[in-house]
Design a protein that fits this description.
By secondary structure, this protein is α+β, with helices and mostly antiparallel strands. It has 2 domains: about 150 residues, MutM-like, N-terminal (N-terminal domain of MutM-like DNA repair proteins); about 130 residues, Helicase, Ruva Protein, domain 3, CATH 1.10.8.50. The protein is about 25% helix and about 20% strand. The strands form 3 sheets. The chain has a 4-stranded antiparallel sheet with strand order 1-6-7-5, with no helix packed on it. A 4-stranded antiparallel sheet has the order 2-3-4-8, with helices on one face. A hairpin with a 7-residue loop joins strand 6 and strand 7. The radius of gyration is 21 Å and the shape is elongated. It starts with a helix and ends in a 16-residue tail after the last helix. Its cofactor is Zn(2+). Belongs to the FPG family. Pfam families: Fapy_DNA_glyco, H2TH, zf-FPG_IleRS. This is Endonuclease VIII.
Amino acid sequence: MPEMPQVQALVDFLDVRLVHRVAPDGEVLDGGAHVTGVTLGSFAVLKTAVPPLDAIAGAEITGVARFGKYVDLDCDGVHLVFHLARAGWLRWLAHPPARPLRPGGKGPVALRLEVDGASDGGTGFELTEAGTKKSLAVYVVSDPTDVPGLATLGPEALTLSADDFARLLTDHRGQIKGLLRDQSVIAGIGNAYSDEILHAAKLSPFAIAAKLSNEEVGRLYTAMRTTLDAAIAASAGKPAAELKDSKRSSMAVHGRTGEACPVCGDIVQEVSFADSSLQYCPTCQTGGKPLADRRTSRFLK
């Protein structure tokens, strides 16, 4: 799933090509690109009806912004907002599409947006989604806060002060892994970076947020900031096609079940749930004890 560092890199990527455009010779181009066409490959991906999708046709793209893990394209006052969910991605169209997108088709393309005047000669982008479980979502709204999930977002992870972060934990009686992933509490962190943050903080994912000591809260806050800052720096300037691999290669424990922990050399373990899993290092995070591979347990007896 794309998380805040990769989504921010996508926003920066689109901003350069569609809004603050620079020609290959370095000349700054006037104004943003204009939408010349927008087509659905999947009717289910569009979650709104008013304004209609074609309301952005012909509009100038005047801004690109990120809210949590949502991307917002301001098309002259009408907003195209999308959330890539677990298996979605953005594919930049370097050349005109070979054939029109067929609505209702069975392929991976959920939406195609075409523009004129992209800074690198490209023609827009496609939103794609792999797998059979489709949850990529697109909204056309007059105000981004009309998007239900966006309206309930908590504060951005990197805008929280240490004191505000500590207060959030004090009020949360659940496990710290769930708190870090809860977008209504802290926006932008998902399954992968919550694993990485907890590993860097040397905390069990099953630790109860409200029971952490002041020293543990401080470690967790520092780990959150340093992990996300490093991921943003690693993603910066990369084209959309390279961001997934960049994310995978930077992970210490997430997605590395059975491999050696880069800090202590212990074997990275996994806890599987119905629709997700987490990875952790027993030596670094749980005092050498393996976590039970079921949702409600703390440790194997």
